[in-house]
UniProtKB/TrEMBL annotation, chains A, B:
NCBIfam families: PRK07586.1. This is Acetolactate synthase large subunit. Belongs to the TPP enzyme family. PANTHER family: ACETOLACTATE SYNTHASE LARGE SUBUNIT ILVX-RELATED, THIAMINE PYROPHOSPHATE ENZYMES. Residues 380-512 form the Thiamine pyrophosphate enzyme TPP-binding domain.
């Protein structure tokens, strides 16, 4: 016999959940012992739960299997929710282990009692509250199955303390067995092929995880049919560089997005949804494709996109073709850093195998496009959920999943201010992460958006709610406070040089890029 | 005509909601303009939503009227929830203004779309989604009424962007009119009087807001009847010092709590609930009063506690009596700082009118008891919800509500790590807050709790999930990074001297007390 927490840990380990990002409390003490015990699970302590949930997201994006979070009751889960929102939108499997009071303690309405299942529901694909120790193994296996079947998602397992401390049989259950992904039928493939050969055709590639092979196939299909290739605005992860086609993406900015899509008459959706505006704007549509456009779905994000593209390539007689990703921009000199210089600096500094976590917000215009011109193979991670403060936490998980690959975060200073505690876990776990903080000391995107959404221009009253300059955040001091060495740069050349240095050194570094 | 956001701001200002703690996004731009416009509402920018919600909680605890938060969609609300949990448990009126996509945009499931109302429900007393501009004034008045009637609580007003930008009539509605609080009937008062005159009687005083008058009455009642006076484990705010009775409180630690209460045969609940264990522990009861104890409720926290105590005092023939709050401890010398020295240093350093925000966790044993011996009148704020990371945000709100009173935060380093961004708002808004961070570099409470809850002792595997020493957080660097000057102290004398200095200087200061 063992206890419930131990049986739970055993089922996790048997199913490849061997990594946990933790911020525990009293109700999770049995789980702490079990997760750090004999099952070989690796644990990373986080000072804030949003770091843990973002890290689990980043881990799954790279490892393609779930990590766990360990969270303390409803408030601990609440702090994790914003980054779980991003995981949900990225179709990332994240398993939350949330401690709960012992079952008969809940009715006493102690200080920390809250409705955990309701809190979890909006961001979770599956929520299970364990009710007896004997069911732990089966219920844990079930949630791992549910959260990974079809579109992967967030699973929240609520573990009452008495279930964790109760006596249990060892957690031997058959491993999770996921069904194969579906392929489109011939008629669907033919319809997509026909649409792509029409005038004004666009292939929109939009699976959360865009592999190199998907892009090669999509590029060949578009070359054979004359269709335009377009990516969704954000993906959970895209393979890039080393001659891949430098997949363009639908712009965030509403008028730019509409301009990109205004002539599309046939849209073939390959893993993508029909594109929608990030926000609603007065006098602008929510659906971005023109009303006259016909939409054809090759397959959804739940299906076997690579297989579907293989079938489509065959149907249109596509031949392998070398893409032109565009010219790597010149290495920047002593100019001040702006969006263009940032893009050039990062593209030139990218090391082989880099994982870039992009939270550059208003300064990302050149960053993504230039990244695709890099001669080295790398992965690009983006935010499909829009909840900011995701990049440093996600970087932790990516670095844990891929300890031999350098991770580079590019984040606005406003964004980085949601989860600065991430820096401490980077230092504690000795992760090779380079954090570039773009210090423009402003919620610049909001200053841009205010007039676009019809709310006028920032004025003397409202500007103080958009500016971060009073006092300026000293990112170098902050970073050192959390044990991460930091430098400050003001030119493109210095930024490029510092990224190269930081990537080459073990452990984390922060670079404050003054803009 | 005006727009919906402006009508909303007008109703807020008319009802005394003149302070907002904000972290806005695109969907809140019209509200930013309205809240910073002609209605005289004062706004404080926060880098993280948990700071905003905690600040609104602290504001209401001191001002006894609600402040607003301004939050960006579901993820912005999610980040605010942990401190809203504490506000809910403290019966604090907090009004969340949460932006939402324009109503017809929601069905398009854009990246930031989520189920805001469900997220809000567990921590809110009232959740209202505005549905048309013409109803804004009435619906805003209604939520202000609902959240302040009976037990005050959190109101969440979800504001779709098109409702905010739509044309509206000016928001003229009658001011909110709250019903008077109820008084107990004579029979209830007599029953309480009789119980207090019995053997083994205890008066448990537990309103969220304990005034000086309540304590004087309770002390006189207990003196007249021979009953023991006891406070709940935590209150939202308690008046203390200057000869008040130094209200004891039910200990957090389960065995100490049971020992305190084991001989109680008659418990009279004055605004309090029957005490329950903070957590469930194997072989320990959840209800802390002995099974043989009879409970008599004088009144609940929803009622007029001061009036109820007046009636009870009259019923038992209580006379005003001078309390003995105990001896102010000697000022500490050059000793290292431990819980006892901390208590002595703070008690001796307390300035007139101080507001103490207590998140001292394992180091609070002497802090509260010694604070009550202070010769100066002050207020003590505690956490009734147990979600940590509350003290620095609450301090912001308290300081905004009471700009002429010094605010002193005493917080564990683990706790302070949830919402460090608070420091920036303290600097930005120029608030006289002294933050004492107790740097023991450990989740010491968890190391204590692990064995108590039957999970064994921390071992080589589990200890790394309880320790914060690798790397040590440099609180001075962190604080300076956010624009708050900082010092580090290692002795009781230095701690006391630095608190005195920091309180006397305008603006915030941080003191890292190495333990």
């Amino acid at each position: 016999m063992t206890n419930g927490a131990d049986a739970l840990a055993q089922v996790l380990a048997q199913n490849g959940v061997d990594t946990c990002f933790a911020n525990p409390g009293t109700t999770e003490m049995h789980m702490v012992q079990a997760l750090t015990g004999r099952h070989g699970i690796k644990n990373h302590l986080c000072l804030f739960e949003g770091v843990a949930s973002g890290a689990a997201d980043g881990y799954a994006r790279m490892a393609r299997r779930p990590a766990a979070t360990l969270l303390h009751l409803g408030p601990g889960l609440a702090n994790a929710l914003a980054n779980l929102h991003n995981a949900r939108k990225a179709s990332t499997p994240v398993l939350n282990l949330v401690g709960e009071h012992a079952l008969d303690h809940i009715a006493h309405n102690a200080p920390l009692t809250s409705d955990i299942a309701t809190l979890a529901a909006p961001m979770s694909k599956s929520v299970v509250t364990l009710t007896e120790t004997s069911q732990i193994a089966a219920q844990t296996r079930q949630i791992l199955t549910d959260m990974q079947t079809g579109t992967p998602g967030v699973g929240t397992l609520i573990v009452p303390n008495d279930v964790a401390w109760g006596q249990a049989a060892p957690g031997n259950v058959p491993p999770v067995d996921l069904p194969p992904l579906a392929l489109p039928d011939d008629r669907t493939v033919e319809a997509a092929a026909k649409a792509l050969k029409s005038d004004g055709a666009m292939l929109i590639l939009g699976h959360p995880f865009i592999t190199a092979r998907m892009q090669e196939l999509a590029y060949a299909i578009c070359t054979a049919t004359g269709a335009t290739l377009m990516g969704e605005a954000a993906t959970a992860r895209t393979a890039r560089g080393a001659g891949l086609p430098n997949l363009p993406r639908i712009p965030f900015q509403i008028d730019a997005a509409l301009a990109h899509l205004k002539d599309v008459r046939q849209a073939v959706l390959a893993g993508a949804k029909a594109p929608v505006a990030f926000f609603a704007y007065p006098e602008r549509p929510s659906a971005l494709l023109p009303p006259a456009c016909t939409e054809t779905t090759l397959c959804t994000a739940d299906d076997n996109l690579e297989g579907a593209l293989e079938a489509l390539a065959e149907a249109v007689g596509a031949k392998p073709v070398k893409a032109d990703p565009g010219q790597l921009p010149a290495a920047p000199g002593e100019q001040a850093i702006d969006a263009e210089i940032l893009g050039a600096a990062v593209a030139n500094a990218l090391p082989e195998g880099a994982i870039v976590i992009d939270e550059s917000v208003t300064n990302g215009l050149y960053l993504y496009a230039n990244g695709g011109t890099s001669p080295v193979a790398h992965d690009w991670i983006n935010n499909r959920g829009g909840s900011i403060g995701y990049s440093m936490p996600v970087a932790i998980g990516a670095a844990v999943a891929c300890p031999d690959r350098p991770v580079i975060v590019v984040t606005g200073d406003g964004s980085a201010s949601y989860t600065p505690q991430s820096l401490w876990t980077m230092a504690r776990s000795g992760l090779n992460i380079t954090v570039v903080v773009l210090a423009n000391r402003r919620y610049k995107i909001l200053a841009n958006e205010m007039s676009k959404i019809g709310a006028g221009e920032p004025d003397e009253g409202s500007d103080p709610l958009l500016s971060l300059d009073q006092p300026p955040i000293d990112w170098s001091a902050l970073s050192k406070g959390y044990g991460v060495p930091a430098t400050r740069v003001e030119t493109g050349a210095a930024l490029m040089q510092q990224i190269r240095r930081a990537v080459a050194e073990p452990g984390p570094s922060l670079i404050e890029a003054v803009m």
